[in-house]
Amino acid sequence: MQESRFQQQSNVFYITSWGHAGDHWLSKALNAHPEIFVLNAHEGSRPKYFKDGLGRHQRPDILQYTAFLEDMGTDYAAIGECHAYRASQMRPVQEKYQDRVPIINLLRHPHAWLDFYIRHRAGNVRMPDRSSTALDHEWEHSEHALFKKLGLQPYTRAEVDVWAAYQGMLLLNQIIPDIESGVRQIRIEDILADRQEFQSLVDFLTQGRCQYDEALFDTVYSFAHKVYRGEETAVDAAGIHAQWPQWKHDAFNKIVSPCAADLYASAGYRL
Q1: Percentage above 90 pLDDT, the chain
Q2: Nearby residues of 252 by Cβ (< 8 Å), 6 or more positions away
Q3: Domains and CATH numbers, the chain
């Protein structure tokens, strides 16, 4: 394995999450700074197109990938990977680099996150030429036996909005290992609402190397609510929840553990 060349100080950072959920803005906002380079879910999207031995559920060795980022980002004050890794996968980086590789875990209201998760799969995971490879993977790796055991509303393969909802609810429980990882937790809503919160995030990720002036702030916040290709206009979390059919309420109460629900509540989210 190739070792890092940066023994004293690294310019790498990670933003972990369970897939970007309508929060593409953060990656674009960071990339808007000339001294910051961000890969947006690179290691999650790449296997959809390049068959090089790693499946969609796999990632390269995290230390080797960190060394790759350091090498790739030599000309930048900071380089980061957003959304491709999970907070619970960061232990090797935490042990090797301590605070020399900043890591944050991005939170979003679980109802809003789940809505995007479902729509992303119902839209065939944005695969080109309507290929079903990625969606086939999602179907094959969903916990169908568990959903049946819980007595949830049955579904067919074609009812993506149902089984994707169940699988997304199951993933919401991952907030437990994310919190236990010790990675700093950040709410995307707080960054959107306050420029100083955004600058504090930048200070942390770039170890104080990069500042945003008011002109750059104006630019990045001007596209904060832009709808990107393949997306629909976002609805607020309360509005999403109000539109849920009864089967979705029942499934949420059965799948999302009380511990996970409490952690979301502790983060300031009303469920």
Answers
A1: 67
A2: 169, 244
A3: 12-266 (3.40.50)
